[in-house]
Amino acid sequence: MAKLSAAQYGKENIRVYKVHRNEQTGVHDVVEMTVSVLLQGDIETSYTEADNSVVVATDTMKQTTYIMAKQQPVTPPELFGSILASHFVETYKHIHSAQVKIITHRWTRMTVDGKPHPHSFMRDGAETRNVEAVATEGKGIDIRSAIAGLLVLKSTGSAFHGFVRNEYASLPEVNDRILSTEVDAGWKWNTFESVKDVEAAVPKFDEAWSSAREITMATFAKDESASVQNTMYKMCEQILAAVPTVQAVDYSLPNKHYFEIDLSWHKGLKNTGKDAEVYAPQSDPNGLIQCTVSR
């Protein structure tokens, strides 16, 4: 006999832009987000019996997101995500868990004539600040903060050797190589009991994001990397030390390969080993290295 074993539903890709205008200074601050909402609860009959009386329409989720963005602060995203997720659990008694994911897109203030411009901004990269907030009835609010889409590269200071060699292994060992990756790094906070507890922690969220970003880039640049695995572990250790209220740190780092091009066929032109200057960037396949480090 068939039985519904799991169910959730929601609204994805809710695009939200908010501007705060300082009437005294004329300075504007802007935030652009992509928000997704997923709800769980006593919704089985909507699947099994075509009972829509338990359905909070996904359009209602969208409109609620807009209303909350108008009435509540949207920064830091950890707070807005917690407010929005808690709203669904508190407003609808048959909804027991709400997951809110927020992608915050970069708008960096322009510098014009040597001064920060009051209302003009530029998109200076694909990096985003991401948050997932899950409010669960009777359990509190779980938050994961993250950096995503931060593309980094260094032209030396990375090696890879001593790995398993057998009849299937053709990769040569290298003592120096180009290392490039697109950083996806997250850190999971200790559970918050309520939105008030999240509000009390507001200063910590921006501080943690700045620390994680600085640690990621400084370790990437300075570490004489024996492997992506070892370098990412060092990053995790440092973030745990810098942010005591974080319980776990995770990284997902795809290898962006750059291969030497053998040009010896052209008049003996040297472009390998110590003579390598021209490389061919690769799109795929690529290595993917992941880890989670906890206290």
Task: Outline the structure in words.
With 295 residues, the protein is α+β, with helices and mostly antiparallel strands. 26% of the residues lie in helices and 37% in strands. The strands form three sheets. The chain has an eight-stranded antiparallel β-sheet. Strand 4 and strand 5 form a beta hairpin. The longest helix has 21 residues, at 202-222. The relative contact order is 0.11.
SSE diagram, text form:
Layout: E1 9-21, E2 28-41, H1 44-48, H2 58-71, H3 77-91, E3 95-105, E4 108-112, E5 115-122, E6 128-136, E7 140-154, E8 179-189, H4 195-200, H5 202-222, H6 228-242, E9 246-254, E10 258-260, E11 279-281, E12 288-294
Antiparallel strand pairs: 1-2, 2-3, 3-6, 4-5, 6-7, 7-8, 8-9, 9-12, 10-11
Helix pairs in contact: 5-6
Spans of 5+ residues with little confidence (pLDDT < 50)?
Answer: none
Round the Cα radius of gyration to an integer and report it. Answer: 24 Å
- Gross morphology is globular
Helix-and-strand structural type: alpha+beta
String of helices and strands: EEHHHEEEEEEHHHEEEE
Measured distance between first and last alpha carbons? 44 Å
Average pLDDT: 97
Indicate the proportion of strand residues: 35-45%
Percent of residues in helical segments? 25-40%
Total helical elements: 6
Largest sheet: 8 strands, antiparallel
Reading side by side through the largest sheet, how are the strands ordered? 1-2-3-6-7-8-9-12
User: Got a strand count?
Assistant: 12
